[in-house]
C-alpha cells in the first residue's frame, strides 16, 4: 500500500519532493515505485515529476530530487537523458 511505498523513499529525499514522487507513482501505477522501468521510460511521468519539483521545491532541492529519480531509474537500467 501507499504507507509501505512512502517508507521506501530515500532518507535524503527533500521533503518538497515526496508528494511529487508519490503522486507520479500513483498516477502512472508504477509497480516498482521509483525503479519502475515503464515509468522511467515514460516521458509524461518524468515531465510531471519535473513540473511538480519546479512548483514545490527550491532549485537546489529540485535538483537533488531529480538526481534521486535519475539514480533510481538508472538502477532499473533506464538512463534519463535530461538534466533538471
TrEMBL record:
It comes from the Eukaryota. GO terms for cellular component: extracellular region; side of membrane. The lineage of its organism: Eukaryota, Fungi, Dikarya, Ascomycota, Pezizomycotina. The keyword Secreted applies. InterPro entries: Extracellular_membr_CFEM_dom (IPR008427). This is Prp 7 CRoW domain. Signal peptide: none annotated. It is found in: Membrane; Secreted. Pfam families: CFEM (PF05730). Keywords: Disulfide bond, Glycoprotein, GPI-anchor, Lipoprotein, Membrane, Secreted, Signal. It is a lipid-anchor; GPI-anchor. Belongs to the RBT5 family. The keyword Translocase does not apply.
